[in-house]
C-alpha cells in the first residue's frame, strides 16, 4: 500500500487556468466545403465575397418598366405599354433589363395583345426591384470567428459566394480504460468482473462536444502496461484520457505512467465528486486522468476535460442556467466545490429542485437528474426554501412537460413511463422512489405533482386516506385509485427450505432483505410481524434495506438473502416463487390544482388505456377495477 | 401565364393533421451498438438485463470483515484481525468474499504484520458495500421509448448489460432544387444567374433533425425534367422535397409533377411567409414543395416539413419558448399565421424583442435573428409594450451574453463583432443598422444596450450630445468616444466623368445613391446640399435608399449609380475612389447602468485593443485618439 502521490486540493478555476496556460494549446484549422460545415466552428470571420443579389432583379413575376412611362396611370386612366420599348416580361429573380427601373406585378397588368399590356397603376422608381446587395452586401460579416455553424449560416455563406470555409480541426481524443477486473460487456460475465462503460460515455461526450474520439483496449493495472498504452495513444491522438487509477490507492498507476512519459502538473482538485483527477502533459498534449466512479468521471469530463480540450476549437456549448427553489436542505463540505444532482419540477410556475442521492457509483442518477447544483468551496450548503442557480441537463421545455412523481415504488411505474413516452414523446413521467411516507413528505413540501402510496391504517383497516388527512391537512387533494396489488414473500425457486408464512422466516432462521424505513411495504412487514408476535431483532437481515421491489427481488434471486417482501410482479419479473400475504391499495394522490396539467392528462390516459391494462395482466398480481376513480379529500 | 392551381388557405394545424393522417407513416427500426447510439431515438423501452453491480462489492479500498467481529472496537479498545479468518484485502469494486459482510476502509486500519491489522472502529453490517443492484436493478427501465440517447444513457445501458439497442432508422430525405436560372456557386457567375443555396440549408436542417439527406442536381423548369427528377428521387428516398416552383406562376411545375406521379393533398397553407407550400404523396412517401425565397423556405422547413417527417423517428427537438416585451408594434394579416423574426436583448432582466425586416429574400435576417414571434391567424398583431411568447433560435445564455447595439452603421462594427468573438467566444455583439436617429429611438425605447451615432448640430457644430439631450431627456447616459471618421463621395476608379465636390453631382447630372432617412450620413448630405444651395430634387437618385455604407459602395461599384456618399473605409473595401467632404464624430452612447455588463466590458476591451486599432489603420479613414473616453450626460 504505497500512497506515493500526495493529492493537492486546487481550486478548480485556478487549476484550469494554470493547466491551460502551461499547455498553451495551438488550434489547427482546415478548409471544408461550406455545405458540409454544419456544427463546425469557424476559424475566421467570414465576409461575403459577392453581394446577394449580385445584380438588380425582379422581386415579382411581372413586367419591368420605365417608371416615368407609367406616371399618370390610375383606375380611370389606363396606359398601354408596348413590349420591347416600354416593358419586358420578368419572373421573380430575373435581372432588370438595362434602362428599366421598376417592376409591375403580374396581378396588376391586363394583357392587350402578344406585345402590349394595359396598366391602371403607376410604378415608383425601384418598386418591386430587389436591388443589388439587398440581402447581403459584399464584404459584410456573415459569421464571426469562433461561431458554431448552423443551417441558416450555410445558406447565407453560399449566398455570399463562400464555397469553402476555414474551421478548426476536430481534435482526436484517445480514451484508455484501465483495470485488472475491467471487462468489455459480454455474455459470460463472472463475479468480480466490472463492465467497462465509462469509455463509451466519454466517447459520446467528446462527440457531442464536436470532437473525434478513439477508445483503446483495456490496459491492465500494471505500470508497464499503462505506460505502453499511453505511449501509443499520445502519439496517435491530440489528447489522452486515462480512466481510473487516478487515485492514490494500491493499484493507481496513472500518476506514475504520466510522469514517466511527461509531467503531471496537478493531481487533486477541490471538487466532489472528482477530486483525484490528474492533469498532465506529454510533449504538449494534454493527458488527463479521470477517476473511475461514473459520476465522478462524468463531472470531471464536463467540468475539467471539456473546458480544457475545447481550446482546440475555441468553443463549447454552455449549459443553460435557471433559478429554482430547493425542496430540501443541502449540506456540503467546506473543502470542495460540490456538484449535487437534482430533479427539477415545474410546480406552480416555480422550479423546485430536489437533491438526488450523492453516491458516486450511481449511473442511473445521471440518467434521471435534470440539473446540477454547484455548492462552492467554503460554502456549508443551502437551506430548504432557498433560491439557487442550477445548470440544466434538460431543456426547460422538457422539464415543463414532465410529471414529477415522488412516492412508493412499483414496477408498473416503469411501464407507465415507457408507454407514456410512446404515446407522445413530448411528455415524461419522472418517478423517484422514496416510499409511501416519503411521498407524503414530498406532497406536503410541494416537491412533486403526484405521489404513490399504500399505507394501511391499522385501526380502521382503511388505506391511504387516514394518513393524508393526518399528515397533509388543509390542502385540496384528490386520491386517484390506481391498482390493488398482492404483496408476499419472495423466495428462490431452487430454495432448500420451506416457507409458507411470516413465522417461517423466524422459525427457519432465514436471511431476509428489508425495504427502507417509511416505505409502505416495510410498514406492512412490521404490521405482519406484530400480528405474529415476532420481534424485528429476531429476523436476520431486518436492517438490510433496499429501495425498490425489484432491488429486493434481485437480492433474493442472487442468493444474497433467502427471502424478502414485495409485490407479485417483481417476483414474476425475477422468476421467483411468491407466497402471498395480502392485497393492498396502491393509489395516486395529487393536489386538485394539477388535474389540468397536460403531462398529468397524458399519464392518466396512459394508465387508463387498454394497452396498459393488458400489460398489468401480463405482469400479474394487479386488479384495476377502480383505476381512475377520483376521491376528493 | 396559366394559373392552373388554385391555392387554398388551410390552417396550418388542420393541414398537418390531415396530411399526416393521409400519409400514415410507418417507422422502420434497426439495431445499433449501444456505444454508437448517441443522438439516435430509442424505438423501444430499454430495461436493464443485468444489475449493476451484479454482485456485492467493496465501495472502498480496504478490508472485507465480518461486522460481528469488529464490535467493541473504539479509540481506546483496538481489535486485532487476522487475515483469512477475520479479513481479506479488497479494492474498490472487488467482490465481497463469502461470509464477510462489511468493509473497513484503508485509512481506518493499522497494519500490524503481513497477516494482521489493528482497527479502532467497529463496522456495521453492509457498511462500505455496494450491494447488488445498488445502481441499476435488473429489469428496471433505463430509458423509455422515443427518447433521444445521451452520453449518460449510453453509460447506463452498457452498465445494465445492453450491448445493442433498437433505434429508428433515419429516413433519407431527397432534395431537388429546380429553376432555369439556378446555378451552383462557381467562379464564373453572370448576370441572371441565381446561386442555389436553399438545398444546402435544407440538407443541414435535415441532418440537424437527426435524419439523412441527399441533394440532387438542379432540375430545369420543365415539367418533364421535374417529373424525371422526382421519379428518381422518390424511388431512392423516404421523403422528397422540391424547392421552388410551388407557387402558381408561369413556370411553377411542382404541382403538376407531383400530380403526375402521385397526388397533391394540400396546396396553400395560411402561413406567412410560406403560403404556397405543396403537401403531396407518391406511393405513400411524402413529397413536399417548398417555396423558393429563403425565408419562406426556412419557415416551411421548420414548421411543416419537420413535424411531418419527424414521424419517421417519433421525435423532434422543440424550440424553447420565452416571454418578451415588444419594443415596437407588430401588425399582421388576419389571413395568415405570420412568423416574425425578432432580435432579443436582455435589458434590465427583461427580454425585449425587436421585429426585424420581413422581406422573404433576406437570408441574413435568418442569420441575425434570435427568435420568432408567431402572430396567429385572425390576429391583427400586437402593441408595443405587450408581452408575447417567442420561440428561441439561440439559447438564453447566448442572448444574455449578447451586447445589443442599434444605431448608425460603420464597417468597423463588423470588425469589432468578429474580433470580440475571437477574444472570447461567449460574448456576441449584435448590431442592427437603422441610422443615428433610429439609434436614438432605440435608446429611448430601451430596445438596446448601446447605440452608435454621428449627428451634427448645425447651430453649434457639436456632434451627438445636443441630439441626445433633446430626444432622450432625463436618462442617465454616457457618451463613449469611438472614432473620428472621414465621409466623402464614392466613385468608380474607371469613371468617365470628373467629380471633386457635391456641386459636381448636380452639374454633371450624375446618378446618386442615397442613405435612408434618419441616418446621420443622409443628414450630412442634406447639410452639404443646403450649404451648396442645391435642391434635393436636382439630384438624380436622391430617393434611392440604402441602409449601410457598404450597400452604397456596392451600388456604385456595380455601376448602379455614378456616385454615393459614405465613409472612406467602405470605399477602400470596395476599391472605389473617394473625394472627402469632411470629418465627423462617430460615438457610442449607452445608459450608465449598463457600464458593468460583461458583454459591454468585452466589447470595450476589444475596441481599445491594439489589434483593433491596427485594423482601423488598415481600413483607413479613422482617427482614434479619444477612443474610450467617457462623457457622462
Automatic annotation (TrEMBL), chains A, B:
InterPro entries: MoaB/Mog-like_dom_sf (IPR036425), MoaB/Mog_dom (IPR001453), MoCF_biosynth_CS (IPR008284), MoeA-like (IPR038987), MoeA_C_domain_IV (IPR005111), MoeA_C_domain_IV_sf (IPR036688), MoeA_linker/N (IPR005110), MoeA_linker/N_sf (IPR036135). GO terms for cellular component: cytosol. GO terms for biological process: Mo-molybdopterin cofactor biosynthetic process. It comes from the Bacteria. GO terms for molecular function: metal ion binding; molybdopterin molybdotransferase activity. The keyword Heme does not apply. Keywords: Magnesium, Metal-binding, Molybdenum, Molybdenum cofactor biosynthesis, Transferase. Its cofactor is Mg(2+). It is an enzyme of class 2 (transferase). Transmembrane segments: none annotated. Its EC number is 2.10.1.1. It holds the Pfam family MoeA_N. Residues 174-311 form the MoaB/Mog domain. SUPFAM superfamilies: MoeA C-terminal domain-like, MoeA N-terminal region -like, Molybdenum cofactor biosynthesis proteins, Periplasmic binding protein-like II. It catalyses: adenylyl-molybdopterin + molybdate = Mo-molybdopterin + AMP + H(+). The keyword Isomerase does not apply. Pathway: Cofactor biosynthesis; molybdopterin biosynthesis. Catalyzes the insertion of molybdate into adenylated molybdopterin with the concomitant release of AMP. PANTHER family: MOLYBDOPTERIN BIOSYNTHESIS PROTEIN, MOLYBDOPTERIN MOLYBDENUMTRANSFERASE. Belongs to the MoeA family. This is Molybdopterin molybdenumtransferase. It comes from Sebaldella termitidis (strain ATCC 33386 / NCTC 11300).
Amino acid at each position: 500500500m504505497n500512497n506515493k502521490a500526495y493529492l493537492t486540493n486546487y481550486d478548480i478555476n485556478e487549476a484550469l487556468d494554470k493547466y491551460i496556460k502551461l499547455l498553451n494549446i495551438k488550434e489547427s484549422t482546415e478548409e471544408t466545403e461550406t455545405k458540409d460545415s454544419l456544427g463546425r466552428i469557424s476559424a475566421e470571420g467570414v465576409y461575403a465575397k459577392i453581394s446577394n443579389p449580385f445584380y438588380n432583379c425582379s422581386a415579382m413575376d411581372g413586367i419591368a418598366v420605365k417608371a416615368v412611362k407609367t406616371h399618370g396611370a390610375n383606375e380611370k386612366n389606363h396606359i398601354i405599354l408596348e413590349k420591347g420599348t416600354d416593358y419586358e416580361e420578368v419572373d421573380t429573380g430575373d435581372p432588370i433589363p438595362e434602362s428599366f427601373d421598376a417592376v409591375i406585378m403580374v396581378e396588376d397588368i391586363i394583357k392587350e395583345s402578344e406585345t402590349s399590356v394595359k396598366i391602371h397603376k403607376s410604378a415608383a422608381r425601384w418598386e418591386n426591384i430587389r436591388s443589388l446587395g439587398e440581402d447581403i452586401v459584399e464584404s459584410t460579416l456573415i459569421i464571426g470567428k469562433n461561431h458554431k455553424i448552423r443551417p441558416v449560416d450555410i445558406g447565407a455563406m453560399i449566398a455570399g459566394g463562400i464555397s469553402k470555409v476555414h474551421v478548426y480541426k476536430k481534435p482526436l481524443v484517445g480514451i484508455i480504460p484501465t483495470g485488472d477486473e475491467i471487462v468489455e460487456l459480454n455474455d459470460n460475465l463472472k463475479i468480480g468482473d466490472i463492465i467497462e462503460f465509462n469509455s463509451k460515455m466519454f466517447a459520446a461526450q467528446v462527440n457531442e462536444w464536436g470532437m473525434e474520439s478513439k477508445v483503446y483496449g483495456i490496459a491492465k493495472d500494471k505500470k508497464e502496461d499503462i505506460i505502453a498504452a499511453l505511449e501509443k495513444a499520445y502519439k496517435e491522438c491530440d489528447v489522452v484520457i486515462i480512466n481510473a487509477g487516478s487515485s492514490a490507492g494500491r493499484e493507481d498507476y496513472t500518476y506514475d505512467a504520466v510522469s514517466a512519459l511527461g509531467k503531471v502538473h496537478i493531481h487533486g482538485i477541490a471538487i466532489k465528486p472528482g477530486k483525484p483527477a490528474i492533469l498532465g502533459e506529454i510533449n504538449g498534449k494534454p493527458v488527463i486522468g479521470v477517476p473511475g466512479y461514473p459520476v465522478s468521471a462524468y463531472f470531471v469530463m464536463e467540468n475539467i476535460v471539456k473546458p480544457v480540450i475545447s481550446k482546440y476549437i475555441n468553443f463549447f456549448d454552455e449549459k443553460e442556467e435557471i433559478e429554482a427553489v430547493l425542496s430540501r436542505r443541502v449540506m456540503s463540505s467546506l473543502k470542495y466545490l460540490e456538484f449535487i444532482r437534482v430533479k427539477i419540477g415545474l410546480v406552480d410556475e416555480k422550479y423546485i429542485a430536489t437533491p438526488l442521492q450523492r453516491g458516486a457509483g450511481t449511473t442511473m442518477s445521471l440518467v434521471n437528474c435534470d440539473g446540477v447544483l454547484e455548492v462552492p468551496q467554503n460554502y456549508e450548503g443551502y437551506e430548504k426554501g432557498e433560491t439557487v442557480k442550477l445548470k440544466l441537463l434538460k431543456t426547460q421545455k422538457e422539464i415543463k412537460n414532465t410529471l414529477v412523481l415522488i412516492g412508493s415504488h412499483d414496477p408498473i411505474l416503469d411501464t407507465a413511463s415507457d408507454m407514456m413516452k410512446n404515446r407522445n414523446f413530448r411528455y415524461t413521467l419522472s418517478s423517484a422512489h422514496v416510499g409511501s411516507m416519503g411521498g407524503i413528505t414530498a406532497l406536503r413540501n410541494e416537491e412533486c405533482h403526484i405521489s404513490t402510496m399504500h399505507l394501511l391504517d391499522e385501526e380502521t383497516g382503511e388505506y391511504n386516506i387516514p394518513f393524508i388527512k393526518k399528515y397533509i391537512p388543509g390542502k385540496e387533494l384528490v386520491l386517484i385509485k390506481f391498482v390493488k396489488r398482492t404483496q408476499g414473500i419472495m423466495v428462490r425457486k431452487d430454495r432448500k427450505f420451506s416457507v409458507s408464512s411470516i413465522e417461517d422466516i423466524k422459525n427457519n432462521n432465514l436471511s431476509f432483505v428489508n425495504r427502507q424505513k417509511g416505505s409502505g411495504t416495510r410498514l406492512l412487514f412490521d404490521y405482519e410481524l406484530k400480528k405474529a408476535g415476532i420481534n424485528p431483532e429476531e429476523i436476520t437481515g431486518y436492517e438490510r434495506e433496499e429501495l425498490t421491489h425489484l432491488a429486493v427481488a434481485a437480492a433474493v434471486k442472487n442468493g444474497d438473502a433467502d427471502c424478502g417482501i414485495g409485490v407479485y410482479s417483481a417476483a414474476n419479473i425475477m422468476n421467483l416463487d411468491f407466497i402471498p400475504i395480502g392485497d393492498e391499495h396502491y393509489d395516486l394522490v395529487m393536489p386538485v390544482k394539477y388535474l389540468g396539467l397536460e403531462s398529468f392528462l397524458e399519464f392518466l390516459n396512459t394508465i387508463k388505456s387498454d394497452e396498459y391494462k393488458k400489460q398489468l395482466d401480463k405482469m400479474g398480481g394487479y386488479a384495476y377495477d377502480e383505476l381512475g376513480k377520483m376521491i376528493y379529500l
